[in-house]
Structure formats: C-alpha cells, structure tokens
Specification:
This protein is α+β, with helices and mostly antiparallel strands. It has one domain. The chain has 2 helices and 4 strands, in the order αββββα. It has a two-stranded antiparallel sheet. A two-stranded antiparallel sheet has the order 3-4. The chain starts with a helix and ends with a helix.
Length: 136
Amino acid sequence: MTTFGAIGIASTGLTVHRKWLDAVSDNLANINTVRSTDEAAFQAKYVVAEAANYGNDGLGDGVRVRGIELGSAEGRMTYEPDHPLADAEGYVRRPDIDMSSQMTQLIMAQRGYQANAAIVDRAKESYQAALQIGRS
C-alpha cells in the first residue's frame, strides 16, 4: 500500500465517522422533542457502514456509508397532562432514544475519527520525510 493509499483509506474512515458524529449529535439534540400523540416521534438516526470495494485480493478502498436507518416513529408515550401538546388523556409522544447509548456511540465515533486523523498525519509525515531524503 502506498502512502497516498493510506491517506485515501483513512479519509474514507474520517467521512464515515463524521457522518456518525452528525447522526449522534442530531439524536442528542432531539432527545427531548415532544410531539402530540397523533404525530410521529422524532426518529433516531443510525449510520450503517460497509467496506468499500472489498475485492478478492484482500484489499479494499476503505469504508463508506451504506445508509442511514431510522429508529421507531412510535417513540414512547409519557403522561404530562399540563403539556400544551397533551391529548385528552394527558399523553405526549417522545422519541425512544437512550442517552447513555448515544453518549457511548458519540465516544466511539469520536475515537474513530481521531484514529483516522492520526493515520493521515503519520502518512503525511512519512511522505514529507521521503521528500527530504530525495532532496539530500
């Protein structure tokens, strides 16, 4: 694998982890979104990644986002009779998002992004060192 190949593959990892971070931050931002019972709850977003062009030679082109899966539109019903969106029985609809799970995913996505950024930095340093050897 060449230095540029390492940078290219790490950049695909950066892209996937950035999209994962975006999805988790959107989920966390909407964790307290309240809707009336006749509306769908905010649906959590989950990034699905896959290997990109994984061939028979055992080498691939990194990773890519295959798609974004959405969580349950049913959400969870909570009893809040004083809420302005409450139905006649006093219920509102909230998203079914678990804060601890989202925070765990946030940490994993952040660490993955940092690891791929470090690979890009190291590959760049190797390329610069090779250029310095060529100048000598």
